Predict the structure.
Amino acid sequence: MKKIILALTFLTSILFAKDMFIFNEKVDLLDSTSKNVVGQIYEGSKVELLKEEGEYSLIKVKGEVVDSNPKSLAYTKDGIYLLLTLNSANASNEMEFLVKSKDLTDKEILAWDEIELTYYDTCTSCHAAHKPKEHLMEEWDAYLSAMQGFAKITDAEKNRILRFLQSHASNGPVKLD
């Protein structure tokens, strides 16, 4: 009987869990009990929606704890593509937080729409923009840094474009093509 109940609970959680994506550039992560801000999660990060609670949503984030910064969770341990950074506690490979429901979208392409447009507008003013899949995540920083002065983009714009390029790189987490 216990096995049946456990199996039903597991199946129910799978059926109701839904992949969502962070819609804004940086979103506050809230403790699920106190609703205090405990960190930030970054644009485009894939999360699992566990439950909607009014204006907030309970999400689960999975990733790798960054070797050089235990307060950060990333796509890989090297920390090239960060998912979230905590203010004081150390991260773990699987964590749950509250975020504002308006900061989530169920369409991955919408999570990247604004910065993708910025990338192509910025780069095509001088040359044909490279498709992000043409390079590895590790290569994009050097390419973009070399063009930053010519493109006249700020460090904040560069970081945001770099995040888009790394996420869509041939070894990145986004597979929209």
